[in-house]
Specification:
This protein has 258 residues and is of the alpha+beta class. The protein has helices at 2-38, 44-97, 244-247, and strands at 102-107, 110-116, 124-131, 133-138, 141-146, 151-160, 165-177, 179-188, 191-192, 212-221, 224-233, 239-240. A hairpin with a 4-residue loop joins strand 6 and strand 7 (165-177).
Length: 258
C-alpha cells in the first residue's frame, strides 16, 4: 500500500509538471504576440518626417502643374493672336483688292474703301475699317463714333443720292480682336501719299492713284505685345480721295458737281 501511494504521488507530480510545461508553452506565444502588438504604429518623429516628405512631393507636383498651365495659356494666347492676325489681314487684303473706285485714310487708324455695284440694291458703297473713333468725312464735314479700344471694326455704308449723304448699313461689326494699334498708310510710286500736314490737319484730297497699302496691327495677349506688318498691292485703278465726284469722276456712274 505504501508503494502504491508513493507511485500515485509521483504520477501526480509528473502530471502537474507536464501541465505547467504545456501552460508555459501556450502562454509564451500569446505573450510574445501581445508584446508585438504593443509595438505597432509610428513614432512622432516618423510622422513628422512622413508629413515633410508628402509636403515636398505635393509642392513639386503643384509647381509642375502650375508651370504647365502657364505654358498652356501662353501657347493658347499666341495661337489666338496668330489666328486673329491672319484672319484680319486676309479680310483686309480681300476688301482692298475688290475695291473698284476709291480709297482714303481720314486718319492713320482708318481706311475707307469706295466701290460701285451697278444694278445692286445700293450701287454706291463705302466700307470703313477703323480702330478707335470712326470718322465720317463727306467733303469738309466730319463726325465720329467711338468704338472698343481692343478691336478693329468695319462699317458698311451706301450713298443716298437724294440726300447726298452716306448712310450706315446695320451696326459696326468686329473686324479683329486683341488689338492695341492699327496704322494704315497709302503709297504711290513716289512714296507715301501725304494726306495731312505736320499739325495733323487734313490736306485737300490729292486725287492720285495709290499703288499699295501698308498696314501695321499691334496685338496684346497675356501682357505680351505682337506686331503684324503687311503690304498689299492695289489691283484696280482707284483714286485716293474721299470726295464723291473725285472717286467716280472717270465713270458714267454719277455726275454731280462738288
Amino acid at each position: 500500500m505504501t508503494q502504491a501511494r508513493e507511485y500515485i504521488c509521483i504520477q501526480r507530480q509528473e502530471n502537474t509538471k507536464y501541465l505547467i510545461m504545456n501552460q508555459a508553452q501556450i502562454t509564451q506565444p500569446i505573450k510574445q504576440a501581445n508584446k508585438g502588438s504593443y509595438n505597432k504604429g509610428f513614432t512622432l518623429v516618423e510622422l513628422i518626417v512622413s508629413i515633410a516628405i508628402f509636403a515636398i512631393v505635393g509642392a513639386a507636383i503643384i509647381a509642375f502643374f502650375s508651370m504647365a498651365m502657364t505654358q498652356y495659356k501662353r501657347n493658347t494666347n499666341e495661337t489666338n493672336v496668330q489666328t486673329e492676325s491672319q484672319m484680319a489681314w486676309k479680310r483686309l487684303e480681300n476688301n482692298i483688292l475688290i475695291t473698284t473706285d476709291g480709297i482714303w485714310t481720314p486718319s492713320n487708324h482708318q481706311i475707307d474703301l469706295y466701290s460701285y455695284e451697278k444694278g445692286g440694291t445700293h450701287e454706291y458703297l463705302r466700307t470703313q475699317i477703323y480702330y478707335g473713333t470712326r470718322i465720317n468725312q463727306d467733303g469738309d464735314s466730319a463726325d465720329g463714333a467711338a468704338s472698343d479700344k481692343n478691336a478693329i471694326y468695319y462699317q458698311e455704308q451706301y450713298y443716298d443720292t437724294t440726300k447726298s449723304k452716306w448712310i450706315d448699313i446695320g451696326e459696326p461689326q468686329v473686324f479683329a480682336n486683341l488689338v492695341t494699334d492699327f496704322d494704315v498708310r497709302l503709297y504711290d510710286k513716289g512714296g507715301e501719299i501725304k494726306l495731312y500736314d505736320d499739325d495733323g490737319n487734313p490736306l485737300s484730297p490729292p486725287g492720285t492713284r495709290p499703288t499699295n497699302v501698308k498696314v501695321n496691327i499691334s496685338y496684346e495677349a497675356n501682357e505680351r505685345t505682337y506686331d503684324s506688318s503687311n503690304e498689299v498691292a492695289i489691283r484696280n485703278n482707284i483714286v485716293a480721295s474721299n470726295r464723291f465726284n473725285a472717286v467716280y469722276a472717270n465713270t458714267d456712274k454719277y455726275n454731280k458737281n462738288d
